[in-house]
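G., before I forget:
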Amino acid sequence: MTSWRTKLLPPLLAIVFAVLLSAIALIISGADPLDAYGTMIGQMFKGSTSVDTVNLATVYYLSGLAVAIGFQMNLFNIGVEGQYRFAAVVAAIAGGALKLPPVIHTVVILLVAVLAGAAYASIPAVLKVTRGVSEVISTIMLNAIVAGIIAFLINADQFGVQTGNNIGTRIIEPSGRIPGIPIGQGTLFGFVFIAALIGVAYWFMLNRTRFGFELKASGESTTAAAAGGVNAKKMTLIAMLLSGGVAGLVAMPELLGRDYNYGITSTQMYGFTGIAVALLGRNHPGGIALGALLWAFLDTSAVSLEQIHVSKEIATIMQGIIVLSVVVAYEIVRRADLAAEQRRVGRALAANGRKSASVADGGAV
Amino acid sequence: MSTAEAPAEAAPDRGTPAVQLTGITKRFPGVVANSDVNLTVAAGEVHAICGENGAGKSTLMKILYGMQPPDEGEIEINGEPIKLRNPQDAIKAGIGMVHQHFMLADNLTVGENVFLGAEALHGIGRAARARLAELSRQTGLNADANTLLEELGVADRQRVEIVKVLYRGAKIIILDEPTAVLVPQEVDALFDTVRSMKAQGYTFLFISHKLDEVRAIADTVTVIRRGTTVGTADPKTITSRQLAEMMVGSELPSPETRESTVTERAVLRLTGLTLRAEGSDRNALDDITFTVHAGEVLGIAGVEGNGQTELVETIMGMRKASGGKIELVDGDGKARDLTKAGTLARREAGIGYIAEDRTRHSLLLTQPLWANRILGYQTRPPVSKGQLLDIAGAREDTARIVREYDVRTPGIDVPAAALSGGNQQKLIVGRELSGEPVLLIASHPTRGVDVGAQALIWEQLRQARAAGLAVLLISADLDELIGLSDTIRVMLRGRLVSEADPATVTPQELGSAMTGAEEGEDQ
């Protein structure tokens, strides 16, 4: 009972709060909040918006999981952005160059993506473990570097192909693609199911394996984990590599389900969205899924606001408010709950404790 | 402004006590920190509050300084009943506290540190500086107001703390273990300051558990044991032995009722163990050599900070030894060199570990009890199957520990933080005795726990010892050490300096060995 309240109440409160606050922003900007919200929700039933939302949420979900793995042991992997883009370009080059039978081709591309993401994450991981360099600093720098690496790799002199004004990697043959499911006017990424499987694997690892226990223990208390025989450096290294590996998959739904190559115009910033989504979902695989869906909904439906002459940036404001309120709400509920739990334990034991306490009480009266 | 003038006023009559606490009771969930505390401090005296760690001294001082409200009881300052809701109230009433850990900003000057937050009294200009200079003279602080705090030594920082509370108009000053951070000469200087200020009419509450210091400085001493005041005495007439008896009471374990279970079989063998201290050329551990046998409790006595923590953490592999050897001998007499092994390997070899700070080293506070059962045992049944956790097994075994070790909890799904200290410790003791250990390292196993939990933990340790467990016991509670140990070694400045027979040694003898009085100064 208590745990359900702890888990569901804060995000609900936060979303209600964010909706109210955004309504104020809407009123200030001269729009009718009900009209605006109605338009956003109505947009979901138009064209391929709902399918697009789920597709985008898949990407956000993977990014959120990658960040969450780091969060579990207090690693702030801001570098998901750099890791996924590095992995995307490497996997796209490998996928375009290889000629393999179906399924095997896809699996090889995914493997390359995971390894490339992990490899790019290994730089901050090794720096942190051996030299104590903060992963925040090193990953931010590596995010900046990755743009240069991509520009270099997709140059026509290296692996790039010029098509019109666009430069990108070679198109991946159909054998390497992941087929989608046509729904209405849109096509649902086949990767949705792979992402769901990764979510289940993440949950299993965290809650059922020794590794997950050690990860959580290190995150909660490095001192207690060390006294319990957990090697903090090893955990840091593995967590960072795992985070990078999952980050490597972030671009795969779009690469193998829609774009088939990676070019200078490919989307960015998914890594940063992942941080917000992981915060929103409190690192829980189910929560991250809901967070990713909410975020994607705000992104895809915001376009419709322009029909009623409302700036679509209002959706960005909502996203920001939601994250802030969720973080604050969780902390408030967490503290209140711990205090309530202590009182409850104290009360439950009062009957037992009464016996020994009565001597002192009697003495005091 | 009246508070600022307070030091200039005449001290209240001898008749009106400066501080009077009546029937103070403070409960925390599951534990009573203070019960029916009565304390009378005469104006212009140095009143020592004595008691073991966890006896409730700090809770009482927090109540007097307004940091925690008492559940019951009354506080009178200079004869006036008063309600202290926060430290500001206490400061207004003329109470100041010098914390054990200084509350000073290193990157500010002495003046800035003193004036910060008290600008309303004299501003920050000439008047403030004049007052600071006057107080510096009174307390013997030889530092210019413009000196950066980071340039001062520990003793001077402490003086800045004292000046800080005086500046805010304190007439009653609580010194919380002020000597813990000082070397002997600085202690003498501090005591001189305290004596001269006493002559000027200030009242001091001096918190300590060091009997010799209490006897040196205090006019009156009140002893706190298990959360309540057990008596007040004149330190000039009472002997250290009587004082020690008051501090530890009569519920001591009685050594004569037990027969020795010590065997010839060595379990833990340390040879020349050395640990270099960080940022110092002194060794934190210097050539430590001893053997713990099966069925033996080896007690390590020592004033805190003489290397006991480092010793334990080096044996557990949380610190890497700079030299020497750690060996664990198994049942067949085969020695296994653990010097290079990691903490997990050492635990798997059969070392159980009750850490001195249970919330930092033994528990995951927000995790449920059953998850805490796994910590340290994540590779072994019944809580683990290879790489996978056995959650059913962990829950079952946690329920068993809760039952057998009388952990008072409504269930095994509550977070560890919800339990009282004593119940947390019982859970830890149960866990560490459940992994079939051959050696148990028990660091302050009953610190801050209630009497019931203490008796239970002692009993469990005795039973385990009788079953052939080797125990390395570190404790600041000398009677616990004497009562449980088969052999006592005294640790001083990272070295084992002497040995004592618990059957004959008294706490006083042990106490003087711990301070190095017998050995003489070797530095």
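The beta strands of chain A are 160-163, 166-169, 181-183, 186-188. Confidence is low (pLDDT under 50) at residues 351-365 of chain A.

More on Monday.
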